[in-house]
Amino acid sequence: MSQPTVYAEPDYEQRRRDFDWGIAERELGYRPGDPINIGWYCSDRVCQLGQGHKLALLWEDFQGRCRFYSFDDLRLLSNTFAAFLLDLGLVPGERVCLFLDRVPELYLGFVGALKMGGIVQPLFSAFGEESLHTRLDDAGTAAIVTQRKHLGKVRRIRGTLPALRHVIVVDAPASALKDGETSLALHELPRVQAFDSYPSTPDTASVLHYTSGTTGKPKGAQHVHYSVVSQYLTAKWVLDLRPDDIYWCNADPGWVTGTSYGIIGPWSNGTTQVVLDSGFSAERWYRFIEKHRVTVWYSAPTAIRLLMREGTDLVRRFDLKSLRHLASVGEPLNPEAVLWSQEAFGRMFHDTFWQTETGCIVITNLPGMPIKPGSMGRPFPGITATVVDPKTFEPVSDSGRVGLIALRPGWPSMMRAYWNNPEGYAAKFRNGWYLCGDRATIDRDGYFWFVGRDDDVINTGGHLVGPFEIESALLEHPAVAESAAVAKPDPVNMEVVKAFVTLKPGFEPSDDLELEIMNVVRRRLSPLAMPQEIEFVASLPKTRSGKIVRRVLRAKEFGEPLGDLSTIMED
Amino acid sequence: MDELRRVILDYVVKEYLEEGDDREVVVDTPLITGGIVDSFSMVSLKRFLEKKYTIQIPDAEATPTAFDSVERIASLVERIRGARAGA
């Protein structure tokens, strides 16, 4: 009987000293000047290394039905998807939106669309038609791949999206579709044995992920194929992926975690991953881990806190000894959750910090590092990170002083642009630093400690929601005169959306009206954006120029000092 | 099907199923795990139940498990109403 491989825990300081991104390039077999296509690295390359037979994806639906895909299946089905897009007349550089639940076509299509040179635009399938329209319109998306259950939203907005030439439906026969819609039964098409992946350069656009800001519409963070260098190495080092691992990332590929670490990271490492297409259920999740012997689990604080609510007795009913490494992302992981995971699973969740724009983990608790519960950890070895003074943008020298988290640009997966928004992109850089929009402190050991956002963006359940979009949706309700959306603290989601609303004459506050407004926002934008509470007020705090001052409302919700009120106009 | 279950079922279908989504929803259909209602939308469903039946559902009882089907939701509402009537 062979002995299990023993892995030495890496030394953080040594890794920092010896680091250069060439480590990842060499391990990936990439030489500067070669084409670099993420889709090829996630499928064909793994097969060329003799791992074609290895399981790439085990997918399970909410009823427990499973599908299995080897890396060779992944190669062939992504070839087929890529060829299908080319046959439709799509060309490299066009935006291909994946508006799908966590079905296999999402994962196979992501790889396939990259192989044909498309810019993949994954969108959260719970988005309402207004959120969907905003993002498709901005990107000038040429094709959307979706399911029958989401087709109604697409149909209602298609007429106002002139660039959208193709609506592709993966689970409906042609007979159920309208003119201009195309059925794609991927598993029934003849598999394309050989496909020449688009010869992308390191700077060729790959993925477009939309993220929210304080003002204006959501911004499309545009990434490039060279990002695989960062995503490969951070997945290997931070998530500690090893050849025999069974890896589970909870994140939906509609968000960046679900692509960087739910597709690119594990598959460029040749790692087997499992996907559960099911809503949250603690019992269901534990059964999934037990059934598939999951070894590495990348989850989120909101999910962990929901699991905490179900208690450790439930955990004990399952055999979860396969779990070897746990990590978390989305919002700060509170110390109680870290300690609870030690009690429940015998292992601590390792917090990681990054964002849509960074494309990869930038501050983290690497395996082997002592964990300080509640800390974000230390910069990944290839990342120069600090906190800077919010006025001078110079690094804060004394430990414990709050500043803005700032990163020195230059790592491979850094976004290259906000789509159609050069001013917004430029505004993210000051004094040679990329500003994340978060405030933190650094302790004497170099660990970062999250303090809060530096803007009005609401981080709910690990997803950023922009107040502007919510307020715009609120104003579309006939009863609403003015509105302000702010964060409200929440024990599970860290923050939830709270709306303050003034009503037009003739309307009176009521429970019925509150529920009606909540549902309007949920349907138009998304469940994440739906205010969990609406407070009807007589007036909103404003500056003398009439701009609503959200910070006052937010401060009240958090019980914080209201700050300078000298410019606030009293009604 | 009794009135309580019918009202909840009708509300779920009207509010949470997309137009054109032809999935059949019955009292035992998984709502949360089945992806019809997510944990954020649960808040609006809870608000509807509280308003419709003039009850307060404690946050600790408004769990994804308790909201995973119309049947479970109806049982929760019945229990809370029963406890109130017996108080």
Helices and strands, with pairings:
The complex is a heterodimer of chains A (571) and B (87).
Chain A: H1 12-18, H2 22-28, H3 38-42, H4 44-51, E1 55-61, E2 66-70, H5 71-88, E3 95-99, H6 104-115, E4 119-122, H7 129-139, E5 143-146, H8 151-158, E6 166-169, E7 181-183, E8 205-211, E9 219-224, H9 228-237, E10 246-249, H10 256-268, E11 272-277, H11 282-292, E12 296-299, H12 301-310, H13 312-316, E13 325-328, H14 335-345, E14 349-353, E15 363-364, E16 378-379, E17 385-388, E18 403-407, E19 417-418, H15 422-426, E20 429-430, E21 433-442, E22 448-453, E23 458-460, E24 463-465, H16 467-475, E25 480-490, E26 494-503, H17 511-524, E27 533-536, E28 542-543, H18 550-558, E29 568-569
Parallel strand pairs in A: 1-11, 3-4, 3-5, 5-6, 6-7, 10-11, 10-12, 12-13, 13-14, 26-27
Antiparallel strand pairs in A: 1-2, 8-9, 9-19, 14-15, 15-16, 17-18, 18-21, 20-21, 21-22, 23-24, 25-26, 28-29
Helix pairs in contact in A: 2-9, 5-6, 7-8, 9-10
Chain B: H1 3-16, H2 42-53, H3 70-86
What does this structure look like?
- Chain A folds into 2 domains: 35-437, ANL, N-terminal domain (Rossmann fold); 458-569, GMP Synthetase, Chain A, domain 3, CATH 3.30.300.30.
- In chain A, 30% of the residues lie in helices and 24% in strands.
- Chain A is built from 18 helices and 29 strands.
- In chain A, the strands form 7 sheets. In chain A, strands 2-1-11-10-12-13-14-15-16 form a 9-stranded mixed beta sheet, with helices on both faces. A 5-stranded parallel beta sheet of chain A has the order 4-3-5-6-7, with helices on one face. In chain A, strands 17, 18, 20, 21 and 22 form a 5-stranded antiparallel beta sheet that branches.
- The model of chain A has no long low-confidence stretch (mean pLDDT 94).
- Chain B has 87 residues and is mostly helical.
- Chain B has one domain (3-86): Orthogonal Bundle (Non-ribosomal Peptide Synthetase Peptidyl Carrier Protein, Chain A), CATH 1.10.1200.10.
- Chain B has helices at 3-16, 42-53, 70-86.
- The interface between A and B is medium-sized, with 35 and 28 residues.
